[in-house]
Design goal:
heterodimer; A: mainly beta; six-stranded mixed beta sheet; five-stranded antiparallel beta sheet; B: seven-stranded mixed beta sheet; 0% helix; globular
């Protein structure tokens, strides 16, 4: 079993739709959680950190469920520019290393 | 903003060549990392460093070595390039408490022929 698992997609959604991605992690010692966005042939960029209480940044909402060991990303009112691959990232306590999921590809259609 | 610069965007090398990939960051970050990214496999950690002259093996260090002689520079070395090392190589840096997130360089797409 992979340490961090994501549905690869693609998720094809119309503009304006709400879409949600989940990511599961296997190590309960995981401490920090992030969502990164990666455009085609570009480097990953930090989208948002995921806090235990959940957090929101504009149209984006991230949530953490430690009991079930998953994090989620919700995108409301999807824009064409949201088309990208979204990477789930987990860091274990006491390490410097991030563990990346393989990403979920989103296509927002006009 | 933190800037992480990788010396080459695209690189083509021959099998058996020694290859150097350079990465420089300008924000005095302690931690630096080298990943490779392949379709379906995601990002895999090759080596990382949390201080000058310090290095730790990641998940796939075979065939690679690294050098960190100065805090701002972290070099990845392919001792004898092979075709299975054709990949996108990404360098990243972060402050000591990695809970703040990594910043990535723009990547080097290496093709070994």
């Amino acid at each position: 079993r992979k340490e961090v698992e994501q549905d690869p997609g693609p998720f094809n959604v119309p503009e304006g739709a709400t879409v949600a991605f989940n990511c599961t992690y296997s190590n309960s010692a995981s401490q920090s959680f992030f969502w990164y966005r990666q455009d085609c042939r570009k480097e990953p960029k930090l989208l948002m950190s995921v806090y235990s209480s959940g957090n929101e940044d504009g149209r984006f909402t991230a949530q953490l469920n430690r009991a079930s060991q998953y994090i989620s990303l919700l995108i409301r009112d999807s824009k064409l520019s949201d088309s990208a691959t979204y990477l789930c990232v987990v860091m274990y306590s006491g390490t410097y290393k991030y563990i990346f999921g393989t990403g979920t590809r989103l296509k927002v259609l006009a | 903003d933190v800037k992480v610069t990788q010396s080459s965007r695209y690189l083509v090398k021959r099998t058996g060549e020694k290859v150097f990939l350079e990465c420089v960051q300008d924000m005095d970050h302690e931690n630096m990392f080298w990943y490779r990214q392949d379709p379906g496999l995601g990002l895999r950690l090759i080596y990382f460093s949390y201080d000058v002259k310090m290095k730790e093996k990641g998940d796939i260090p075979e065939g690679y070595s690294v050098s960190r002689e100065k805090k701002e520079r972290f070099s990845l070395i392919l001792e004898s390039a092979s075709t299975n090392q054709t990949s996108m190589y990404l360098c990243a840096s972060s402050p000591p408490h990695s809970g703040d997130g990594y910043t990535f360089g723009s990547g080097t797409r290496l093709t070994v022929v």
